[in-house]
Amino acid sequence: MTSSRLPLFALAALLSCPAVALDRPEITFKIFQFPPNMIPRIDGNADDWAMVPEDYAIGIDQLVDDTGKFKAPDKTNLEVKVGWVKGLNRLYFLYEAYDNYWDFSRSDLHNDIFEVVVDGDVSGGPLIDIYHRDIWTPEAVGQARSVIDPRISRSDAHWSFHGVHAQNYHIFTPPGDKDWAMVFGCAQYIKELPYANAAYNYNFKPGEAGKLVLEFWITPFDYSPCDGPQRAVESLLTENKLIGLSWAVMDSDDVNGSRSPFWNLSRKHTMYGNASDLVGFRLMPLEPQFKKPIAANFSYKVADMDRRLVAFKDESDGKITSWKWSFGDGATSTEQNPMHQYKDGTDYTVILDIEGPAGKARRAKVGGVSVK
Description:
Blueprint: H1 8-16, E1 29-33, E2 58-59, E3 76-84, E4 91-99, E5 113-119, H2 154-161, E6 167-172, E7 181-183, E8 196-201, E9 210-218, E10 221-223, E11 233-234, E12 242-250, E13 262-264, E14 279-283, E15 298-304, E16 309-314, E17 322-326, E18 332-333, E19 339-341, E20 347-356, E21 359-370
Parallel strand pairs: 1-3, 1-14
Antiparallel strand pairs: 2-3, 3-4, 4-9, 5-6, 5-12, 6-7, 8-9, 10-11, 12-13, 12-14, 15-16, 16-19, 17-18, 17-20, 20-21
């Protein structure tokens, strides 16, 4: 006789798993795809972003304070655009804002801040230590907790999974004498080259008004352990993929130490520590004006090296009516995505010819297919 009930340990494990349900399901924000020959230069100059259509821009009107405690930030003309480049696991940001009081004179966390949280594989769940166990401090009273195991200390949580599957960047606007960002967790390498870069453009002093332009890019990680990048796994960014992303603006106008207004793109300010509270962003295809009418391209994978069996995938652009593959060993195919078995182990030059209403195109990978 079998039972349909789950064992207690299995039920506990199931209940402890984070629910992946992004906030604001009624809207999907867009991430602009830059053409590979027009990647923005990180120099604080917004000219490279002039090609981005205005419907990609996200303004201060999208930010909310779900606590009801803070007035709206004084920043006006605040606008954020996000981009990506096919083949690079990077998210590019342009942040532009005018403020009547930029606060960045101190060398601590008291600063105007642009806080960005990213979950590249939409895994959801807690990403900072206090959300990984039941820690009730005066500051935390009233905030929900995702309890995995009360035996896990805050120190253990910090070193085990603080910022491991999703990342939080406290970006100083501007930084003054500090690093450009404070990263939550011990994987501090994620804010340095070759995983991130940033540049600012402004001409005001602390306490003055003015416009700030910030350009930066970050690398989202599915796994970013404390012990260094050797075992880290970058999030694979692909066309039409949905990722979790959100940001908040902290406007530290009060130099007397009162709390800074915290306005966030998610409707939940807890987005800073729980990736399930982020919002959905789509990695968009190239806009039509940047596409060729027809362009040939392909990729391949060795399906069985012992048999030298190779799977080819057509990745061409445009409306295509015919394909012709030349596999480099005398064999050909007219299938769109053929399989081919080579007799000898060597490097082959494979050519794909395509044709459609817009004309013809060819792509050759010289010695690019290896079945040694």
